[in-house]
């Protein structure tokens, strides 16, 4: 009977290996959701980040020719400043982040970092300067230590542990039976949404980029986790130019500028206070969310 089972066992192993392969491939594709036409220009230079100023200059963009997504978008995020982008689903918020990473080139206008057109610098140097804490982080089927260390090639164990501390993840990890060697992902320990986000924060701390994109999750975490994560995010966005793609307005009241994006155009802009005073779209969204928050606490 054992003879009969052996091939099955082998098949199971192959299946699991392929499956793991697929999961990781899927993770990779999510990270590299990019237009294959994007290439370094001949003689492309290394991006030199001095202060980390990000400028979008009259950007027009469409994924498909017949459907414009961004129409003449301009903004400037000063060094160490925070820009928040809000607006309805499909308004083009994530597209802005993809353009900054140069996953696509705009049809018109320029994206500049410290005055350098990002289409003229190497993609490596560009992407090395930007960190992203995504909505839904991808975990590799590997140890939690590996998943954090992935933020920077060649990171030492001490650096990984320091990043975990910075993301308030060390307490959780040291309680795990295998510590930093605990397997996570599909085949290992499943992490909660908040824990996964902390892994992404730790990765970003290791990378230590001058420019940061925070892509806020649409699905709410419980409010204590949410508050803890907000505090950690606020800490890591200090001294960095930060773009926040926000869904909950309560998390961006401190932003230097808030852009309300609607159908690829800026409908309103200003800081929280100025936008409330305007009594327009933003004020309306704020009122609606404040009511929701009140309902939550009932
Ligand atoms: P959400 O708040 O729901 O995440 P968003 O404001 O971030 O929305 P984007 O993801 O920037 O919106 O998408 C803007 C528009 O571009 C949407 O209508 C979307 O369908 C379209 N779009 C996004 N990605 C692609 C793509 N790869 N190819 C074609 N169209 C796309």
Mean pLDDT: 86
Could you list the spans in which at least 5 consecutive residues all have pLDDT below 50?
A: 20-31
Shape designation: globular
Number of strands: 10
What is the radius of gyration computed over CA atoms, rounded to a whole number of angstroms? 21 Å
- Could you tell me how far the N terminus lies from the C terminus, measured between alpha carbons in angstroms? 62 Å
| Helix share bin | 40-55%
Report on the biggest sheet.
6 strands, mixed
Brief descriptors of the model:
298 residues, alpha/beta, six-stranded mixed beta sheet, four-stranded antiparallel beta sheet, binds adenosine-5'-triphosphate, ABC transporter ATP-binding protein/permease
Structure in words:
A six-stranded mixed β-sheet has the order 6-7-8-3-9-10. A four-stranded antiparallel β-sheet has the order 2-1-4-5, covered by helices on one side. The chain is globular and about 55 Å long. The protein is of the alpha/beta class. It is built from ten helices and ten strands. It binds adenosine-5'-triphosphate. The site of adenosine-5'-triphosphate (ATP) has 10 residues, from strand 1 and helix 2. Residues 63-64, 69, 89-95 line the site of adenosine-5'-triphosphate. This is ABC transporter ATP-binding protein/permease. It comes from Parasphingorhabdus litoris. Residues 54-288 form the ABC transporter domain. It is found in: Cell membrane.
Topology:
Layout: H1 2-31, E1 54-64, E2 67-77, E3 82-86, H2 93-100, E4 108-113, E5 116-117, H3 123-128, E6 130-133, H4 144-149, H5 157-166, H6 170-175, H7 193-207, E7 211-215, H8 223-237, E8 241-245, E9 257-262, E10 265-270, H9 272-278, H10 281-297
Parallel strand pairs: 3-8, 3-9, 6-7, 7-8
Antiparallel strand pairs: 1-2, 1-4, 4-5, 9-10
Helix pairs in contact: 5-7, 7-8, 9-10
The protein binds adenosine-5'-triphosphate (ATP).
Adenosine-5'-triphosphate binds next to strand 1 and helix 2.
